[in-house]
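pinned: reference chain
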Amino acid sequence: MKSASLPKGFPTTSEEWEKLIAEAPGEDRPPTPEEEAAWKDAVLVLEGGIPAVRAALAEKRRQRGAQIAPVKVPTTIRFDADVLAELKATGKGWQTRVNDAMREWIKDHKAA
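pinned: its structure tokens
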């Protein structure tokens, strides 16, 4: 690779590489808070190439952060086994769809 195509500050000589390696954190020096912050959102992919990296990043993006104020209340409800199986068979998000259906039912059946 030509040195002109490398990013600015990228080591180009063996001396620069040796200096960079010598400054890298090791067992003798814990990482600084800045180094910790730089790696806190890193995604480790040991094998699988680019498709595995893409999949790992997509999974990370799907994760929700902590709720500021809970908008849902956990509860227990009993369904017949066949009803529950049919609901779950609709795939991911079935609880949200049940919640939406119940909201619609309540709207249509409000006491006068």
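why pinned: Residues 11 and 20 are 8 Å apart (CA to CA). Helices lie at 14-23, 33-39, 49-62, 81-89, 94-108.
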